[in-house]
Amino acid sequence: MGVFMKKQRRITKNREYQNVFQQGVSTASRGLVLYQMANGLPLNRTGFVTSKKLGNAVVRNRARRLLREAYRIYAGDIKTGYDLVFIARPSAATFDFKQAAAEMKRLLQRGGLFSITSIPQVKK
Fold first, then answer.
1. Residue range(s) defining the domain that contains residue 75
2. How many domains in the chain?
């Protein structure tokens, strides 16, 4: 497990997810939805949601791995102090890494979460 996904940097409890869904602001794209909410902490906490509409467990786990890896690329350039929940829509089941990273980048830009003006490019 990488530096960016230590337990304190994850949203783990159902009530934490519900709190972000109820009080947070959402931004959507074709394959992903991002809920963001200020958390008052000096770090970001992140959660990834894949429903059974996406496919079987293999497909859902693959989608979560792709999203975590895409987030890892951008994590150092995101403003701190937010709870972020990424929800994969059914079309995300067919994403490759570049598509997942591009969708995530688009959502993070729309949400105004990048702390710098130059945004990293995906090289994979």
1. 3-110
2. 1
